């Protein structure tokens, strides 16, 4: 993934993006429920990777979760810190998490892996598994299609996936799927889905 290209693309529309998507009220209630169900009771540290305006990080904190946000875009982080002053937000990326191995209880990657070229997804999921403790949870939001392919996302090129292939790649990285939520095309919204998986416990 060209991180500079993605950063610049989102920075150029940050104000508009925040206005459209920057509060939990603008999130589908079923999505909030899914996130809360799988990450809202985690006792340890949870990272919201690609946190954007920080609204979902703030939602997790409102549930009592020790959540922090990471994003590439300084404009998003400035808004997130102002909107959620009690939450920690840091500049960073998905590929190299600045945390000790096994130190996280959960990861939320809500549409933040969509700009990864297919050949880079496995490496990122392996990094998630390195960072998450056994029995920790990862929750992904993704665009879905019958075949892996790029499309013209409104901000910068993104990729959609068959959900079964996402599940298989999670499995190869050491996770086990526990639930999925699929939403078909509605109006001008593309089909999309969420998937939750648990980090396998070594035997």
Write the layout of secondary structure elements.
Blueprint: H1 3-12, H2 14-21, H3 29-39, E1 45-49, H4 55-62, E2 66-71, H5 74-83, E3 88-91, E4 104-110, H6 118-131, E5 132-143, E6 149-151, E7 158-160, H7 163-173, E8 175-183, E9 192-199
Parallel strand pairs: 1-2, 1-4, 2-3, 4-5
Antiparallel strand pairs: 5-9, 6-7, 8-9
Helix pairs in contact: 6-7
Strand-pairing-aware structural class: alpha/beta
Name the average pLDDT: 90
Count of runs of 4 or more consecutive helical residues? 7
Strand order of the largest sheet: 3-2-1-4-5-9-8
Coarse shape: globular
Radius of gyration: 16 Å
Textual characterization of the structure:
This protein has 203 residues and is of the alpha/beta class. The protein contains seven helices and nine strands. Strands 3-2-1-4-5-9-8 form a seven-stranded mixed sheet, sandwiched between helices. A two-stranded antiparallel ribbon has the order 6-7. Strand 2 (66-71), helix 5 and strand 3 form a beta-alpha-beta unit. Helix 6 crosses helix 7. The termini are far apart.
Structure in a nutshell:
By secondary structure, the chain is α/β, with parallel strands linked by helices. 35% of the residues lie in helices and 28% in strands.
Structure keywords:
two-stranded antiparallel sheet; single chain; 203 residues; 35% helix; alpha/beta
């Amino acid at each position: 993934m060209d991180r500079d290209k993605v950063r610049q693309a989102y920075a150029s529309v940050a104000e508009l993006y925040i206005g459209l998507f920057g509060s939990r009220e603008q999130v589908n209630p079923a999505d909030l429920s899914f996130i809360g169900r799988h990450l809202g009771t985690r006792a340890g540290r949870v990272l919201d990777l690609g946190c954007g305006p920080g609204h979902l990080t703030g939602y997790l904190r409102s549930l009592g979760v020790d959540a922090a946000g990471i994003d590439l875009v300084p404009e998003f982080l400035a808004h997130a810190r102002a909107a959620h002053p009690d939450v920690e937000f840091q500049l960073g990326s998905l590929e190299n998490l600045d945390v000790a191995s096994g130190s996280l209880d959960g990861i939320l990657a809500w549409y933040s892996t969509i700009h990864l070229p297919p050949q880079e997804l496995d490496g990122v999921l392996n990094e998630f598994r390195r960072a998450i403790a056994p029995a920790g949870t990862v929750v992904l939001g993704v665009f879905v299609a019958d075949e892996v392919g790029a499309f013209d996302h409104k901000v910068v090129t993104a990729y959609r996936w068959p959900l079964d292939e996402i599940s298989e790649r999670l499995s190869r990285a050491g996770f086990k799927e526990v639930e999925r939520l699929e939403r078909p095309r509605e109006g001008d919204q593309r089909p999309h889905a969420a998937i939750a998986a648990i980090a396998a416990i070594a035997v």
